[in-house]
Amino acid sequence: MTLLVMKFGGTSVADLARIENAAGKVAREVARGHDVIVIVSAMAGETNKLVGWVNQTSPFYDAREYDAVVSSGENVTAGLMALRLQEMGIPARSWQGWQVPLLTTSAHGAARIEEIPRANIDRKFAEGMKVAVVAGFQGVSPEGRITTLGRGGSDTSAVAFAAAFGAERCDIYTDVDGVYTTDPRITRKARKLDRIAYEEMLELASLGARVLQTRSVELAMRYKVRLRVLSSFEEVDDTSGTLVCDEEEIMESNVVAGVAHSRDEAKMTLISVADRPGVAAAIFGPLAEAGVNVDMIVQNISEEGRTDMTFSCPVDQVARAERAIVAARDEGRIQFADLVADTEVAKVSVVGIGMRSHSGVAARMFAALAAEGINIKVITTSEIKISVLIDRKYMELAVQALHDAFALDRAG
Ligand code: ADP
Ligand code: ASP
Ligand code: MG
Fold first, then answer.
1. 11 CB less than 6 Å from ligand 1?
2. CATH class of 3-175
């Protein structure tokens, strides 16, 4: 008997008809002889609604109660999915995170999975249960409190279950039929990839392609989980969708595999800070303490012992970043002439393991942006990616221009 993990995202369980459709896909795998662990998200829009309720009730909320509230959307879909499967004559039951138990750290709102003991679910499979329906996105802390894994976290639940139970594969059912060269909502030329390497998927996810949560790709890579993304709205078979796998299993040889974007970025510049040892530490220490996720950092060439320091962070963290920097100045830890925030920027990135062995990718990227008259504000590179910060209003145009420049509509 082989075990499959099947995860259904919010749009795929958005109403009772869609839950029935998803249950049909599960029933098919059961009929083919699989035991199945189904991971469900909350119905589309539910988690956003719950987050809104928390913010309205308590702006500086207790994160433990935030998790208690926002995890609840998944409980509803898990129960409904189990009921639907039972109506189809399939032995199924639902599990909330704490019942499994899915053990996590205590980092509420962004907890990490520590362990998934198998005994409870294994016992039920041994007794004849065919499908364990597990509420995604949630677990339980060492203190016995409900935790959540960060937005999009059901993907990570799914991969963690696949790893813990040695599943044959982890299938992520969603509203697109696979991983594309870029978000198919931005350009119709986006091309579905049959396969993508773990490393590339990891970069694309962390740079904004929300089709998989970053942490889920990390786990899949670490535990060699065969991870597949496919459509819950189409007929599928074993070859459908996109397989995330080792780079050795991939024949395609495009230098750039895909283009990612992240819309809600901000750029902050401290003007005229002293250029001496310890200054960067004095700026980024307080930002880290305040929980600001600093991404890109640029320090300009100094003149007469002064320099400008620029960094980027998510736009909804600008107020927190400003507060931390001003407090550090008031305490005498840093000095600067002015603090300027640009909250109208976006990040666009090209990703590909081919960059390790090919030069000229940056030049081609910058030329494509220049041809559209798009100004680059900040640049960062790593071994397999190049990211630029640009005006948000040009984001779609930039993605399209880069997609064309690297001929991503054609397989290499
Ligand atoms: P779910 O609710 O199933 O988890 P998400 O909305 O989290 O679905 O992720 C699917 C969405 O990811 C797609 O609708 C698509 O707009 C977006 N997306 C962004 N980049 C890509 C990409 N490179 N390939 C496929 N989808 C992408
Ligand atoms: N429902 C959660 C969210 O919207 C988790 C998920 O769907 O993966 O973020
Ligand atoms: Mg998702």
1. yes
2. alpha beta
- Residue 38 parent element (H or E): strand 34-40
> Is residue 149 within 8 Å of 138, Cβ to Cβ?
yes
Closest ligand to the CA of 151: 2
CA atoms within 13 A on the CB side of 82: 19
Ligand with the closest atom to the CA of 42:
2
Task: Give the pLDDT band (50/70/90) at residue 305.
Answer: confident
d(CA 95, CA 394): 45
Residue whose CA is closest, atom 5 of ligand 1? 211
- Among 11, 102, 137, 172, name the best residue to mutate to test ligand 2's pocket (greatest count of ligand atoms within 8 A of Cβ): 137
| Residue 251: C-alpha distances to residues 195, 197, 246, 302, 412 (Å) | 9, 11, 11, 47, 9
Cα–Cα distance between 263 and 210 in angstroms, integer? 12
CB 245 within 8 A of CB 225: no
Where would I find the H helices in 101-197?
A: 119-126, 154-164
Neighbours of 335 (CB within 10 A): 14
Q: What's the CATH code, domain 259-405?
A: 3.30.2130.10
Nearest CA residue ID for atom 5, ligand 2: 152
Report residue 114: phi and psi, to 5°.
-100, -45
Taking a C-beta distance cutoff of 8 angstroms, is the pair 216, 159 a contact? yes
pLDDT (tens digit, 9 = 90+) per residue, 157-205? 999 999 999 999 999 999 999 999 999 999 999 999 999 999 999 999 9
User: How many CB atoms within 10 Å of residue 285?
Assistant: 15
Q: What is the pLDDT of residues 98-136, one digit of tens each?
A: 999 999 999 999 999 999 999 999 999 999 999 999 999
Contact criterion met (CB below 8 Å) for 305 and 322: no
Q: Spell out a b/e string for 120-135, using b for 16 or more CB atoms within 10 Å of the CB, else e.
A: ebeebbeeebbbbbbb
Provide the pLDDT for residue 60. Answer: 80
Closest residue to atom 12 of ligand 1, CA basis: 211
Residue with tokens 């090209």: 350
Question: Is 42 a pocket residue for ligand 1 (Cβ < 6 Å)?
Answer: no
Instruction: Give yes or no for a cis peptide into 142 (omega within 30° of 0).
Output: no
Tokens of 44: 């589309």
Give residue 176 CA to ligand 1 midpoint distance, Å: 7
Does the reported pTM lie above 0.90?
A: yes
